């Protein structure tokens, strides 16, 4: 995870042919590991149809054996009339999580290998990601404990990066069992640079009324330092 500290990704989000809003993903170090923050906002025009003001924060660390461990996952969603705040806390022993929503807390069993979906995103980026790859990552999200399936499609494509260079990209298709930002059914594709950085250049998420697209507009490379 240290290789991503200080990185910031900014996106323009579009619905079909309409520019819908912006999203950002920032990773930095904290006192006990790493912290991630995702924010998504629709613009004034799209607010008329589906106003989104979402914020997700995730905390985690790598243990002495180099294994990814999650500590906290906090979601605040405002999507049209829908409001939700969800907090997942991963126990230090790695064998259970507490999940709080609408003032009610429940406990669920997991294994030490289970992580939250933001950590799973970065763990995926840290892998080799060769065309045709297939692997799973144990995750816990929104009361569900499951194995996130990740497929790397067999072909690569070339896309224009925001820094003015054409780059080769692998297409990564995670199969989520829970909804996420701008996505109502977990169907997502991510186009990542075909190099060690695996920078997400483009994203696609299926929703009930079409498809949301995300296009990287600016990239701040990792610093490896507290920011």
Name the descriptors:
14 strands, 227 residues, 59% strand, 14-stranded antiparallel sheet, 2 helices, mainly beta
Query: Reading side by side through the largest sheet, how are the strands ordered?
Result: 8-7-6-5-4-3-2-1-14-13-12-11-10-9
Radius of gyration: 17 Å
Shape: globular
Largest sheet: 14 strands, antiparallel
Total helical segments: 2
- The total count of strands amounts to 14
> Which residues form runs of ≥5 with pLDDT under 50?
none
Domain count: 1
- Could you spell the SSE succession in H and E letters? EEEHEEEEEHEEEEEE
Helix content: under 10%
Fraction in beta strands: over 45%
**Category from helices, strands and their pairing:** mainly beta
Quaternary state of this entry equals single chain
Overall average residue pLDDT:
90
Distance between the termini: 15 Å
